[in-house]
Design brief:
The chain is 62% helix and 6% strand. By secondary structure, the protein is mainly α. α9 packs across α12 (294-314) and α13 (323-335) packs across α14. The strands form two sheets. A three-stranded antiparallel sheet has the order 2-1-3.
Length: 396
């Protein structure tokens, strides 16, 4: 082959390669807009960074994170439109949970925000926007479901997504909508359950499960390291049930006008001291030690006081034990050859009725509450959280 022919061939190959390269760059140009919501845009480069930071890097992760961004922008725009303003405590609450979860997994906020492909400024902006969105969502979930809220916003928004056209509409019966708290798209901040407007994130649920494991170990039960993951999976489910119980009763107490006063806290604290000894904890250790942040434990403590006030009004104050019932119980004990102490019998009868009444109160409130649980769907029904006793089956 002559030099002239070779030169022309090389030039043609070079031009073809250049054209192919230019076509690839144009098709994958980092500045192209992947999605837009009412004028706000998500570029390919930003989406790529989010996939590298919060996803596994696959195409499904890319589409999922594009979807989370669209939903976040819809909610953020509505929050701004309504003039939602976070209080200092709102950001602190979210920050405490993120800090505690990172600590439980051997990291810290400074490292989390600074490390990774997504710039620190973007992560911190995500956090601030997430707090704002949470306030809007919490208010709305009291009145309607999350899909209904997003559906209304979709209906009046200009949503475009050339790369994933299916994301431009809210499809009935489609995949569950992404709902996150604090850090949008970050898996620990995925919402796993909700009740009457309050939400439970995967991170908080993990910390509650770890707190249960920590408590079990304090009481002397050995859980080997190799069984820890299995134990946490079981505690995770139990923690959702406990959270539903606390939230449903506490919300009803607030609706009925109950409040927590300093004397209430002092009285309850005196009761707690004795029970904490069994767990080898002082009051100070209880609030400060362990996986759960102190702010969450103190909120749980106040919720328990509210639930107790509600139970006294709705259950304890309505218990009436008659003389005939006392005598019948004492006669039964004598027949069995057991000691029949009148005071003990009254206490047992009242205790049994309180337990039954407390269950009935919770069940009646749960079926009226707006609850959801994406991780354990069977817990969305009252029998999943509080199974009926044999004599109640078929009644509710």
């Amino acid at each position: 082959m002559s030099r002239a022919v070779f030169g022309r061939a090389a030039a043609l190959l070079g031009a073809a390669a250049l054209a192919a390269g230019a076509a690839w760059v144009w098709a994958h140009r980092p500045w192209r807009v992947v999605a837009s919501v009412n004028g706000a845009t998500l570029t390919a480069s930003e989406l790529d960074l989010r996939v590298q930071t919060f996803g596994g890097g696959g195409e499904r992760d890319r589409e999922w994170l594009a979807k989370t961004w669209i939903v976040k922008e819809l909610l953020l725009g509505e929050a701004v439109h309504r003039g939602v303003r976070p209080e200092p405590g709102d950001e602190q609450e979210a920050s405490d949970l993120i800090t505690a979860w990172l600590a439980a997994h051997g990291s810290a906020p400074e490292r989390f925000f600074a490390d990774g492909p997504l710039p620190e400024a973007s992560k911190r902006q995500d956090f601030k926007e997430g707090v704002l969105v949470n306030l809007l969502v919490r208010d709305e979930l009291v009145k309607r479901g999350f899909r209904e809220l997003v559906g209304e916003l979709f209906g009046r928004a200009d949503v475009r997504c050339g790369e994933y056209p299916g994301l431009e509409k809210l499809h009935e019966g489609g995949a569950p909508l992404p709902l996150y708290a604090g850090m949008w798209g970050w898996e620990p901040m995925r919402v796993v359950a909700g009740a009457d407007g309050s939400i439970l994130t995967s991170a908080e649920l993990d910390l509650r499960a770890r707190n249960m494991l920590d408590d079990v170990r304090r009481m002397g039960r050995n859980v080997p390291k190799e069984r820890e993951r299995e134990a946490l999976a079981g505690f995770r489910r139990d923690a959702v049930k406990q959270w539903f119980l606390k939230q449903v009763l506490c919300d009803e107490a607030v609706r009925q006008g109950f409040a927590v006063t300093p004397p209430d806290e002092k009285e309850e604290m005196a009761k707690v001291v004795a029970s904490l000894k069994r767990h080898k904890l002082t009051v100070e250790q209880f609030f400060k030690d362990g996986p759960l942040p102190e702010s969450v434990k103190r909120a749980d403590f106040r919720a328990a006081i509210l639930a107790g006030k509600l139970a006294r009004r709705e259950v304890s104050d309505k218990i009436n034990v008659t003389g005939r019932e006392i005598e019948a119980e004492m006669s039964e004990l004598r027949r069995k050859g057991e000691k029949a102490d009148r005071k003990a019998v009254i206490g047992k009868l009242r205790g049994d009725r309180f337990k039954r009444g407390y269950r009935e109160l919770f069940r009646s409130l749960f079926v009226k509450a707006r609850v959801f649980c994406m991780e354990f769907p069977d817990l969305e029904k009252v029998d999943g959280v509080s199974p009926p006793v044999p004599e109640e089956r078929g009644g509710r």
